[in-house]
């Protein structure tokens, strides 16, 4: 994994300035003229929050659907590095939450929306160590809050601050990867941690921290599958097959809750009771569909919000990066 990330970083350093924005009109034009040559490799990016991909990997669903294709699985700690690898061409498609896409598009990264799914209502939480003097979100002023920059937790914390009538200037954001943030919270080097599942349940059940607020009452959010524009343009039928496998996996998850819990635990290193708790937060069934106008607008609204808060340098035009499968 370390060598893969090093390779990805090198590719990014060499090629970052070459990336441009790929308009959805071009996606459709190229899709129409694509010869759909058979693919020989399929590089997949996943993370601990990507339940369907974890289950599909364990059950070899992609290998069965693409029998003559070399399937490569690449794990990432969060959405931002997943999209860095996608933009660099190191993976063909991957999974992430909402905010990383906005940051990536604002930076001119090369990607297209492939599909979406509903996110868990309690998919994010604000955790504080035991004995903390933070009891409500109104107590966050002046506090050090750990989060992964550009991740879905970035959006979650923005919503929390808005609900508490606070601004980013009222807190001290501390940019940390999930593993580093967990260690910092345990040592009380940060006052709170904004994070997503399965880290929420794992930390709560450890008995060292508790949630003072979660995303249950916040606006609906979604999970996204993003693809390399060239993959969609050159292989539109295979892009559709990716969505088909994800939906077959969703059906398997619904029909095999016990086995799914075991797969999640074994694949992520979580205890069975933590994996079971994580799964109770997941919507069921939860199909993957091409983006609808409502979902596209939710991404645009997030871009508008981040741009107004000066969290991104350029606003986005989400609709220009959406793949619309031909019927």
Question: What features would you describe in this structure?
Answer:
With 327 residues, this protein is of the alpha/beta class. It contains 14 helices and ten strands. The strands form two sheets. Strands 2-1-3-10-4 form a five-stranded mixed β-sheet, with helices on both faces. A five-stranded mixed β-sheet has the order 7-6-8-5-9, with helices on both faces. Strand 6, helix 7 (152-163) and strand 7 form a beta-alpha-beta unit. Helix 12 packs across helix 13 (272-280). The relative contact order is 0.18.
Briefly summarize what is shown.
Belongs to the bacterial solute-binding protein SsuA/TauA family. By secondary structure, the protein is of the alpha/beta class.
What descriptive keywords fit this protein?
disordered N terminus; D-Maltodextrin-Binding Protein, domain 2; Solute-binding_3/MltF_N; 14 helices; transport; Putative aliphatic sulfonates-binding protein; SsuA/THI5; ABC_SsuA_sub-bd; five-stranded mixed beta sheet
Topology (SSEs and partners):
Layout: H1 2-15, H2 24-33, E1 41-46, H3 51-59, H4 61-65, E2 70-75, H5 79-88, E3 93-96, H6 98-106, E4 112-118, E5 124-129, E6 144-147, H7 152-163, E7 172-175, H8 178-186, E8 192-196, H9 199-206, E9 209-214, E10 222-227, H10 229-234, H11 236-255, H12 257-268, H13 272-280, H14 293-308
Parallel strand pairs: 1-2, 1-3, 6-7, 6-8
Antiparallel strand pairs: 3-10, 4-10, 5-8, 5-9
């Amino acid at each position: 994994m370390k060598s893969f990330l090093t390779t990805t970083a090198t590719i990014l350093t060499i090629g970052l300035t070459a990336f441009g924005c790929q308009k959805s009109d071009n996606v459709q034009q190229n899709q129409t003229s694509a010869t759909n040559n058979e693919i020989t490799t399929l590089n997949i990016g996943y993370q601990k929050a990507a339940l369907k991909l974890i289950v599909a990997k364990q059950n070899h669903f992609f290998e069965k659907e693409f029998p003559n294709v070399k399937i490569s699985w690449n794990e990432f700690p969060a959405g931002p590095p997943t999209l860095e690898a996608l933009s660099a061409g190191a993976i063909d498609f991957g999974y992430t939450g909402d905010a990383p896409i906005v940051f990536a598009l604002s930076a001119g990264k090369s990607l297209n929306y492939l599909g979406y799914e509903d996110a868990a209502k309690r998919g994010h939480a604000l955790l504080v160590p035991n004995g903390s003097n933070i009891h409500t979100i109104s107590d966050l002023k002046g506090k050090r809050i750990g989060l992964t920059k550009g991740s879905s937790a970035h959006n979650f914390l923005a919503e929390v601050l808005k609900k508490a009538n606070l601004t980013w200037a009222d807190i001290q954001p501390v940019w940390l990867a999930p593993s580093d943030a967990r260690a910092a919270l345990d040592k009380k080097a940060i006052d709170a941690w904004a994070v997503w599942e399965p880290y929420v349940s794992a930390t709560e059940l450890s008995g060292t921290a508790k949630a003072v607020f979660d995303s249950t009452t916040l606006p609906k959010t979604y999970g996204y599958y993003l693809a390399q524009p060239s993959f969609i343009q050159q292989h539109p039928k295979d892009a559709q097959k990716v969505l088909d496998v994800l939906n077959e996996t969703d059906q398997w998850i619904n029909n095999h809750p016990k086995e799914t819990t075991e797969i999640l635990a074994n694949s992520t290193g979580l205890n069975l009771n933590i994996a079971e708790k994580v799964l109770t937060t997941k919507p069921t069934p939860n199909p993957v569909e091409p983006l609808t106008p409502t979902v596209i607008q939710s991404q645009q609204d997030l871009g508008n919000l981040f741009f107004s808060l000066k969290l991104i340098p350029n606003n986005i035009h989400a609709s220009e990066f959406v793949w619309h499968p031909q019927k």
